[in-house]
């Protein structure tokens, strides 16, 4: 059984605009079918992630698609999320981050939260805790900690947006997180060890109930 605990789950979200990028551009080659559309507790993985993003209180919200677009847009058409297509998605995650940041450039957010569509155990409470921790500490990055990893979902202060834009190819936000060392604040999220890249991981997910804080 996976652990679903997070620290200070009831902490309120900080005041001020925090934008959120939901990245869902991959082709799901290891899964063999679009993982964003896999069923999960009455919805799809993408719909579940999108509803989690909405419940976080972030604004604006941007979904970045790639290999699929129309089918993913249909999943979130009734939610307050802007969907954009990254035509360069095959070059790697960095291009999706750049596309998402371009979409929010005019909103001047105080920080940007990045999350993926294949981490279904992420909760609104976790996202709010990341935001609250960043507000409290003014750390440049607050990242989820699982296993030996510091990774997404993670929140990046406005001052680091140029560094996100400089990522290239397969470099995701994890590269920037790793480069900041001890300056990165962490929020414990052991359930983050499970993402959904393979049929075996999907089967493991379905054996566990959805997290209820």
From TrEMBL:
GO MF entry, a single one: molybdenum cofactor cytidylyltransferase activity
Enzyme kind, highest EC tier: transferase
Domain MobA-like NTP transferase: 21-180
The protein's name in its UniProt record: Molybdenum cofactor cytidylyltransferase
Keywords for this protein: Nucleotidyltransferase, Transferase
InterPro entries the record matches: MobA-like_NTP_Trfase, Nucleotide-diphossugar_trans
Family annotation (Gene3D superfamilies): Spore Coat Polysaccharide Biosynthesis Protein SpsA, Chain A
Pfam families in UniProt: NTP_transf_3
The UniProt record lists the keyword Transferase: yes
Lineage: superkingdom: Bacteria
EC number of this enzyme: 2.7.7.76
């Amino acid at each position: 059984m996976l652990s679903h605990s997070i620290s200070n789950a009831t902490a309120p979200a900080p005041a001020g605009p925090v934008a959120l990028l939901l990245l869902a551009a991959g082709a799901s080659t290891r899964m063999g079918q679009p993982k964003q559309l896999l069923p999960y507790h009455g919805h799809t993985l993408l719909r579940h992630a999108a509803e989690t993003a909405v419940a976080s209180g972030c604004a604006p919200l941007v979904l970045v698609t790639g290999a699929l677009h129309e089918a993913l847009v249909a999943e979130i058409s009734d939610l307050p999320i802007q969907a954009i297509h990254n035509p360069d998605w095959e070059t790697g995650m960095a291009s999706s981050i750049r596309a998402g940041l371009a979409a929010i450039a005019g909103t001047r957010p105080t920080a940007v939260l990045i999350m993926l569509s294949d981490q279904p155990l992420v909760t609104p409470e976790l996202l709010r805790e990341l935001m609250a921790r960043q507000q409290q500490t003014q750390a440049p990055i607050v990242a989820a900690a699982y296993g030996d990893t510091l990774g997404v979902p993670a929140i990046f202060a406005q001052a680091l947006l140029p560094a996100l834009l400089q990522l290239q190819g397969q470099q995701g936000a994890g590269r920037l997180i790793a480069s900041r060392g001890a300056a990165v604040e962490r929020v414990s999220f052991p359930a983050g060890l499970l993402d959904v890249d393979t049929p075996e991981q999907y089967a493991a997910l379905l054996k566990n109930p959805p997290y209820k804080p």
